[in-house]
Design a protein that fits this description.
alpha/beta; Rossmann fold; Alpha-Beta Plaits; 2 domains; 5-stranded parallel sheet; two-stranded antiparallel sheet; 9 strands; 36% helix; binds flavin mononucleotide; binds iron/sulfur cluster
Length: 298
Amino acid sequence: MENLQIVYYTGTGSTRIIANTLQTQLTVRNQPSEVNRLTVDSAQRIKDSFDAQTTLILVHAVHAFNAPELVYTWLKSLQPHMHRRAMVISVSGGGEMLSNTACRTTVKRLLTKKGFEVVTEAMAVMPNNWMSPTPDEISKMLIQVVPQKVEMWLEAFLSGQALPYMKPLLIDHLITAAGRLETLGAKQFGKNIKASDACNGCGYCVENCPASNIRFSDETSPHGKPVFGGTCHFCLSCVYECPQHALSPSKLKFAVIPTGYPLRAYLNPLDPPLSKAELSERLKGNGWKGVKRYLEVE
Ligand SMILES: Cc1cc2nc3c(=O)[nH]c(=O)nc-3n(C[C@H](O)[C@H](O)[C@H](O)COP(=O)(O)O)c2cc1C
Ligand code: SF4
Ligand code: SF4
């Protein structure tokens, strides 16, 4: 029997929305599936649940024109079995533009090595959590279209079809390869996050860090303050999601959007949604090309 696994890598939660929607829609189709978040802690357990019958839907945030490094190391660790099928969905803030187009190349190569045929691939766009925010109304629209996008991706995958996507150029491959140096910056970023006195020791950041990079110093009762190691993935979730806004980095601060990443607020749908003309008006300029394409404005 087919063992359908949805595996997702998220930092700040937008990829989780897509993974959960995939599972909901599979359930409606009477197709049982498992959904798991890939973290340093869960990597081995997810790997152990794979077998020769596994069909994989891999959904990953885009970090520096790549999948996060953990996705690569986890894929490398899988046992090879031939004749398995996979769909890959990359989740970016910018969509299909610039070197984002090469962001699934390494994932596909590694999956093929492990015996997966990547039948379907797609680029999802979600609110940008890096440097410059996606405007609120556009963020809401991006979340509003998730069910219809997921339906289209699943329809294609379950009927064995590929979907069109922008083919990367040589320059995109080169920039994506250079993007992997971001892991060096990630270490610096993580090491230099400090908790202020506003921290109440709730433990959220410690439990939610995909890199297991945060622990409590046990110097004071009950937990002490969170302290950060050198294995950060630069996912930004601890900084944005601390309920006390107690965490701030002292290096590479430019990456953090000063107004935060209010994903929960974006879940409230726009009623009525923006028309094509309104979207076009708000998405002027080349930087929005990928988002425009995704929202079918052009
Ligand atoms: C370190 C880092 C690098 C990123 N690099 C890119 C990128 O190269 N291209 C892009 O379109 N978005 C990039 N983003 C934005 C995220 O891919 C996007 O906001 C995504 O929705 C985040 O997913 P998550 O909420 O599941 O973590 C980056 C985000 C981070 C934190
Ligand atoms: S999430 Fe914030 S308040 Fe909770 S332990 Fe971490 S830093 Fe402290
Ligand atoms: S330390 Fe913070 S930014 Fe780094 S991986 Fe953990 S949650 Fe993400």
